[in-house]
């Protein structure tokens, strides 16, 4: 019953909100979710990376409401060989480097950078695994916004640890920070990024075609574009 005795403001952390939240309209949320998708091509080097998990971290505080992009990140498991470098973890690392760069925009100390996450919103095109959802809570983000749900990933053949972000948030009541959870934002646009990997009949993303036994997509070569 503990969940029902805490203030309403805290309860907002544990329920998905799909329309305007914290004064930010859905159109702005959609823009940044698309920006998380765009990060895939920028950082992966491919129009059809197999693990197309993209993230954008934005500051909606002290701006005109549209937001200021702080950093982006994508899943880098295959490029680097680090199994923990999911898109969200990569973005957190990238943001930390940007916030603390002594020659950069912000030039924050380590403690100032840690505190800065309380003003930031993390957009990710798919619901975070429990590792990443926990990292989001430990970082103390102001908001966490995702597109495609874990349930959809599982139905489409993705291996997942079956713990939702909501469950992670419900188990993190003892943390000092409070993070608003906003799910299923622009899922109609994020879902297609995750539908072809285990379905050879599903069309490849633009700029790619099926290869081998049809279970993979690869980018066109120059000769194939002629």
How much strand? 15-25%
Q: How many domain units?
A: 1
Low-confidence parts: 1-18
CATH topology: Cytidine Deaminase, domain 2
Q: What gross morphology would you assign? A: globular
Kindly provide the radius of gyration, computed on alpha-carbon positions and rounded to a whole number of angstroms.
18 Å
CATH class: Alpha Beta
State the CATH architecture.
Answer: 3-Layer(aba) Sandwich
Give the topology string: H per helix, E per strand: HHEEHHHEHEHHEHEEH
Pick out its properties:
single chain; 226 residues; alpha/beta; Cytidine Deaminase, domain 2; globular; disordered N terminus
Architecture overview:
- The radius of gyration is 18 Å and the shape is globular.
- It has a five-stranded mixed beta sheet with strand order 2-1-3-4-5. A two-stranded antiparallel ribbon has the order 6-7.
- The N and C termini lie far apart (65 Å).
- The chain is an alpha/beta fold.
- It is built from ten helices and seven strands.
- It has a single domain (24-219), classed as 3-Layer(aba) Sandwich (Cytidine Deaminase, domain 2).
- The model is unreliable at 1-18 (pLDDT under 50).
């Amino acid at each position: 019953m503990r969940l029902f005795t805490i203030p309403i403001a805290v309860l907002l952390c544990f329920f998905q909100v799909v329309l305007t939240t914290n004064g930010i309209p859905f159109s702005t949320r959609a823009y940044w979710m698309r920006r998380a998708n765009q990060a895939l091509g920028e950082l992966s080097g491919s129009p059809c990376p197999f693990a197309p998990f993209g993230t954008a971290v934005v500051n909606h505080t002290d701006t005109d409401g549209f937001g200021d992009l702080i950093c982006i990140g994508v899943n880098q498991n295959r490029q680097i060989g680090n199994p923990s470098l999911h898109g969200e973890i990569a973005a957190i690392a990238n943001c930390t480097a940007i916030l603390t760069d002594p020659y950069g925009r912000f030039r924050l100390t380590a403690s100032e950078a840690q505190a800065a996450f309380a003003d930031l919103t993390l957009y990710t095109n798919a619901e975070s695994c429990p590792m990443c959802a926990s990292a989001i809570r430990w970082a103390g983000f102001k908001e966490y916004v995702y597109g495609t749900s874990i349930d959809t990933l599982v139905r489409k053949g993705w291996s997942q640890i079956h713990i939702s972000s909501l469950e992670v948030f419900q188990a993190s009541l003892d943390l000092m920070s409070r993070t608003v959870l906003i799910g299923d934002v622009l899922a109609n646009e994020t879902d297609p990024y995750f539908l072809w990997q285990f379905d050879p009949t599903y069309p490849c993303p633009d700029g790619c075609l099926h290869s081998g036994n049809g279970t993979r997509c690869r980018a066109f070569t120059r000769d194939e574009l002629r």
